[in-house]
Write a structure and sequence with these properties.
Layout lengths: L17 H7 L5 H10 L7 E5 L5 H5 L6 E6 L2 H14 L3 E5 L12 E7 L7 H11 E14 L4 H13 L21 E12 H9 L10 H15 L5 E14 L1
Parallel strand pairs: 1-2, 1-4, 2-3, 4-5
Antiparallel strand pairs: 5-7, 6-7
């Protein structure tokens, strides 16, 4: 897919990063799941749709057999990994591939809709109508964004190296999207997070990035990967990387 407002319109394909995404992008801090549970997401008897679910990270961490959970993503590959994970663990989660703007799901089907790390990829005006159509009366839409802290040393060096090999890549910095008045009554919370990684898992997390596997050619990726591993060799095996977490809620 491509978007003229992202990476100078260059093509990216999340399907190419699905394996690494499934293995290394399950990094949300516990506070996110605590807040979502407190809001009622995946509570007994509720229905929940996760937009842009990727490999199903939110549904698998909040799984409740007494809730009806659906995840959609435009990437068939991402959905394939989500389904495989659900099957392996016996989770009754419905996953299917579809654009978020045209889910094809019935009107007023969900108590909760979430969109994590993905809303800026969507057509905002189409999403406004689709979310209102899909939510039940008094339903809740929640946007989530886990952002880098850009002056963190390891983050800064890793991002600079991606830019060196992929100059058109633009780190999302989508925190500002969390302050968007998409609907009335926006409430946004912001949290500082220190997330633990090993050198391998941080490298894997950077592989599961739009600027690397999803958009680099094979040879370019392999050269970037070798240099990134060499860079990380100067750090301890266990590292802490600072992040910022934003949670925005709209009660419709």
């Amino acid at each position: 897919m491509n978007n003229k407002n992202i990476d100078n319109g260059n093509t990216f394909d999340w399907g190419l990063a699905s394996e690494k995404y499934s293995e290394f992008r399950d990094i949300y801090p516990p506070v996110l799941y605590e807040k979502l549970r407190a809001l009622g997401v995946a509570a007994d008897g509720t229905s929940w749709l996760d937009l842009g679910t990727g490999t199903g990270i939110l549904p698998q961490n909040l799984y409740n057999p007494n809730a009806r959970i659906t995840g959609i993503d435009i990437s068939e590959q991402q959905i394939r990994y989500a389904r495989e994970n659900a099957k392996k663990h016996g989770w009754n989660i419905r996953y299917f591939a579809a654009p978020a703007e045209e889910t094809g799901l019935p009107d007023k089907s969900f108590d909760f809709i979430t969109a994590a790390q993905c809303f800026w990829y969507f057509d905002r005006e189409k999403m406004r109508g689709e979310i209102k159509r899909l939510l039940k009366p008094n339903g809740t839409f929640i946007k989530v964004y886990l952002d880098f802290v850009y002056d963190d040393e390891i983050t800064a060096k890793s991002l600079a190296l991606v830019k060196q090999f992929n100059p058109d890549w633009q780190p999302a910095e989508s925190w500002h999207d969390m302050l968007d008045e998409l609907f009335d009554g926006r409430k946004t919370e912001r949290f500082e997070c220190e997330i633990p990684f090993t050198r391998e898992s941080w490298h894997g997390r950077m592989c599961a990035c739009r600027g690397t596997l999803a958009s680099m050619g094979k040879e370019t990726f392999e050269r970037w990967s070798a240099e990134h591993k060499q860079m990380l060799a100067a750090y301890p095996e266990s590292i802490i990387v600072k992040h910022k977490l934003y949670i925005t809620c709209f009660n419709l």
